[in-house]
């Protein structure tokens, strides 16, 4: 029985990747080795920048049990990814329009133990269904922190993976653990530093991580691409508490300009 489920899940993952090539929808997983680095906040604001540039964006809150994107988008979904996973709702039922033009949210549900059925099958299916709609230019998947089985299964679904980190030593340690895991099956990881004053700081740390990977003889074809930094600013925490997006409320602030550059680089890199 287990082998049957595993084989089915593998086939669904392969199907998802094939559909990604034929559909206009590009899938980007945004992840982090450590919690508290601002991953969900940046995901929501990346979605806003993409939508502002005319892209139709879907955001899947895949932080299993700790979802919070509905707070950042200030929406109250009637159905969530939780109901989809348990077979209680269809994809159409769990897509929530936000107040932001061209942004739709598939919300998660905080504080709930998700279904015990094979999560890989369900994760593949929902991404497959979203891609098959061919309505969205970009699907952003906001994974949970760490490298637990839920995160790993979502990361299997795309080759476009953006890791958010900070210069905190524990965050960097967890980023390297994430990198080691990804390098087994993937060829590239994009990295963005949050709460980091200088671009050069992130660039230097990224080079150190690359050297460590070479020293430890990780996949020689694996690449780590540094795409920018977000300086620490009060406007991010202020807008978050007010359930607003800093990219909308402070459109001329330097932090928005920096994130816009990161999004431009992201769009160049994704396939």
Quick one: how many beta strands?
8
CATH class: Alpha Beta
> Please, what is the average pLDDT?
89
- Tally of domains: 1
Q: Identify the overall geometry.
A: globular
> Going by CATH, what is the homologous superfamily?
P-loop containing nucleotide triphosphate hydrolases
Structural class: alpha/beta
* Weakly predicted, low-confidence segments: 1-5
Query: Order of strands across the widest beta sheet?
Result: 3-4-2-5-1-6-7-8
What percentage of residues falls in helices of 4 or more residues? 40-55%
| Span between termini | 35 Å
**Given the structure, what is the number of helices?**
12
Beta-strand residue percentage: 15-25%
CATH architecture field = 3-Layer(aba) Sandwich
Cα Rg: 18 Å
Order of helices and strands: HEHEHHHEEHEHEHEHEHHH
Quick one: biggest sheet? 8 strands, mixed
Q: Output the CATH topology.
A: Rossmann fold
Structural commentary:
- The chain is an alpha/beta fold and 271 residues long.
- The protein has a single domain, classed as Rossmann fold (3-Layer(aba) Sandwich), CATH 3.40.50.300.
- Helix content is 48%, strand content 18%.
- It has helices spanning 2-22, 39-52, 69-72, 81-85, 91-94, 119-133, 149-155, 169-183, 199-215, 234-241, 246-249, 254-269; strands at 26-32, 57-62, 95-97, 103-106, 138-145, 161-165, 188-194, 223-230.
- It has an 8-stranded mixed beta sheet, with helices on both faces.
- β7, α9 and β8 form a beta-alpha-beta unit.
- α1 (2-22) runs parallel beside α6 (119-133).
- The relative contact order is 0.17.
